[in-house]
């Protein structure tokens, strides 16, 4: 959890120790000034809530920072992870053991957080050297967190972000920035509700699965947990209640008026193997758009759908007879329902008009599978191969859209070794798995227990030729005649040798395939450095 030192997840029952397998949404709005809510809004709200609400009590491992008021752990790892020790909140957030504490009404209030600095340079995202789209920005984010255990059963956590994300260079001269505050999390947790095996969490909270293939998002929700030594289950109802950002007076389109029913069921059939079932239904009640409507560019919503995803994940690790280990994963999902998709035509830099609206049934599927061999060769290198497939639409003129799409709240980040995640579909291209075939080969070296270097190669092809790539950093459009999207090479160095500091560097090159026509063979380039100091 935020007051602990490791990867995090969600509340749940205690589990026996076992080994684990390796495992800001912000639209740029052109120099938006802070408005609506002051920068102190989130922090003030947190302090006010702390005065009236309790917080969750937690049993922690020896390296944890908050002393538990009970012997029994009330957290677990990600729902599909092999549970090796009590859960934390906020997967990926590392916190030191020496966080600041102060006594409040006889119990410790823990105050901590992190400062993150991320310089990034990206070149030729349109795959055209003459497009003048090179850009460099320096994102900064300060998190402040408060954790307070009111009793053995009740506790409270709040996290606020203060961000400043300026463009320091733009080849076309059009720089912009973001500045503001955000309420990231604010939840109440009740362990063993009415002395039962059920626990509940209410408020703004983090949803994240082990591979972030299904979800990784902060949502306003109510969540119920149930579990024992062999299984764990949870069910949630999520619906956003207004903007949480001081610089943005609206909810982002992917969450605007979207009611979600979501859950997972984990069966740990072996100490190092598990099977997880996932379920997600969304009801999109956002405003219907009509052809000719004028929309703000940062509020365009290309899809309104009442959709249901059902799927499963098998994941684990086992030792080889002659040395070394193999980790494996298999994700699969079906999506069905009804959807309206919209195309837009740019009016100017701030507005776009609805050009078309198409209603269709949806029936599609996707999968992602792979293995990692952890060798006992000198330097202990590990080798990974993976393949992901998201179905496409072979007949766009019929009444059913067979293009797979992920939930819209996924992040597609994982770790092969060490303690830091990276994007396993490519740090630069970073697509949503939709109408794509993605083949991946990777070589990694552990530098220590917590640090690693990974070299990854990705090959991308469309399942069906289309002029649309769903949610990618590459801004060029395919020609809808060829399917070969291209290739990417990533080098990721993750360093985590210090109690308070994490450093990650990623360098990426993407080379366009023949699906981009005359741009085929052109490249895009990116350098990304992330420095995080936790306190």
Structure description:
There is one protein chain. With 535 residues, this protein is an all-beta fold. It has one helix at residues 41-50; strands at residues 10-11, 75-76, 100-104, 107-123, 135-149, 154-170, 177-190, 198-208, 216-227, 231-238, 258-270, 273-284, 294-296, 303-319, 325-346, 351-374, 382-390, 400-401, 413-414, 422-423, 436-446, 452-462, 484-495, 501-512, 523-534. The chain has an 18-stranded antiparallel barrel.
List keywords for this structure.
50% strand, mainly beta, two-stranded antiparallel sheet, single chain, 535 residues, 25 strands, globular, 18-stranded antiparallel barrel
Brief synopsis:
The protein is built from one helix and 25 strands. With 535 residues, it is mostly beta strands.
List the helices and strands and how they pair.
Blueprint: E1 10-11, H1 41-50, E2 75-76, E3 100-104, E4 107-123, E5 135-149, E6 154-170, E7 177-190, E8 198-208, E9 216-227, E10 231-238, E11 258-270, E12 273-284, E13 294-296, E14 303-319, E15 325-346, E16 351-374, E17 382-390, E18 400-401, E19 413-414, E20 422-423, E21 436-446, E22 452-462, E23 484-495, E24 501-512, E25 523-534
Parallel strand pairs: 16-18
Antiparallel strand pairs: 1-2, 3-4, 4-5, 4-25, 5-6, 6-7, 7-8, 8-9, 9-10, 10-11, 11-12, 12-14, 13-16, 14-15, 15-16, 16-17, 17-21, 19-20, 21-22, 22-23, 23-24, 24-25
């Amino acid at each position: 959890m935020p007051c602990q030192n490791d990867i995090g997840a969600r509340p749940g029952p205690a589990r026996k120790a076992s080994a684990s397998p390796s495992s800001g949404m912000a639209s740029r709005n052109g120099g938006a000034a802070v408005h609506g809510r002051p920068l102190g809004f989130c922090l003030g709200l947190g302090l006010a809530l702390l005065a009236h609400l309790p917080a969750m009590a937690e049993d922690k491992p020896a390296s944890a920072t908050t002393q538990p008021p009970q012997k029994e752990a009330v957290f677990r790892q990600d729902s599909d992870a092999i549970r090796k020790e009590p859960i934390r909140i906020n997967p990926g957030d590392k916190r030191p053991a020496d966080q600041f504490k102060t006594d409040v009404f006889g119990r410790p209030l823990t105050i901590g957080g992190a400062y993150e600095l991320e310089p990034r340079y990206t070149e030729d995202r349109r795959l055209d050297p003459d497009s003048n789209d090179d850009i460099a920005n320096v994102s900064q984010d300060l998190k402040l967190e408060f954790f307070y255990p009111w009793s053995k059963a009740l506790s409270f956590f709040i996290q606020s972000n203060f961000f400043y994300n300026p463009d320091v260079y733009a080849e076309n001269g059009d720089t912009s920035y973001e500045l503001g505050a955000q309420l990231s999390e604010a939840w109440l947790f009740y362990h063993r509700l009415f002395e039962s095996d059920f626990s509940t969490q209410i408020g703004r909270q983090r949803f994240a699965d082990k591979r972030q293939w299904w979800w990784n998002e902060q949502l306003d929700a109510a969540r119920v947990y149930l579990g024992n030594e062999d299984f764990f289950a949870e069910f949630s109802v999520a619906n956003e209640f207004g903007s949480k950002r001081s610089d943005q007076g609206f909810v982002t389109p992917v969450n605007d008026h979207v009611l979600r029913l979501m859950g997972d069921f984990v069966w740990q059939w072996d100490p190092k193997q598990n099977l997880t079932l996932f379920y997600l239904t969304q009801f999109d009640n956002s405003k219907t758009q009509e052809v000719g409507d004028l929309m703000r560019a940062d509020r365009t919503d290309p899809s309104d759908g009442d959709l249901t995803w059902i799927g499963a994940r098998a994941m684990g690790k086992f030792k080889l007879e002659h040395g070394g280990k193999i980790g494996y994963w298999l994700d699969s999902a079906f999506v069905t329902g009804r959807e309206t998709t919209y195309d837009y035509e740019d009016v100017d830099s701030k507005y776009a008009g609805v050009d078309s609206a198409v209603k269709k049934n949806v029936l599609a599927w996707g999968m992602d599978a792979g293995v990692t061999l952890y060798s006992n060769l000198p330097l202990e290198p590990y080798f990974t191969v993976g393949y992901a497939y998201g179905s496409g639409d072979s007949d766009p003129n019929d009444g059913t859209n067979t293009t797979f799409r992920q939930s819209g709240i996924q992040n597609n980040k994982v770790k092969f070794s060490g303690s830091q995640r990276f994007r396993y579909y490519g740090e630069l291209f970073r697509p949503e798995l939709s109408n794509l075939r993605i083949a991946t080969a990777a070589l990694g070296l552990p530098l220590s227990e917590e640090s690693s270097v990974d070299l990854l190669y990705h090959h991308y092809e469309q399942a069906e030729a289309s002029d649309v790539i769903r949610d990618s950093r590459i801004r060029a459009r395919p020609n809808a005649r060829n399917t070969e999207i291209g290739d990417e090479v990533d080098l990721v160095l993750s360093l985590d040798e210090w109690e308070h500091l994490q450093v990650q560097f990623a360098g990426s090159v993407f080379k366009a395939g023949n699906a981009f026509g005359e741009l085929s063979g052109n490249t895009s380039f990116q350098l990304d450095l992330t420095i995080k100091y936790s306190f």
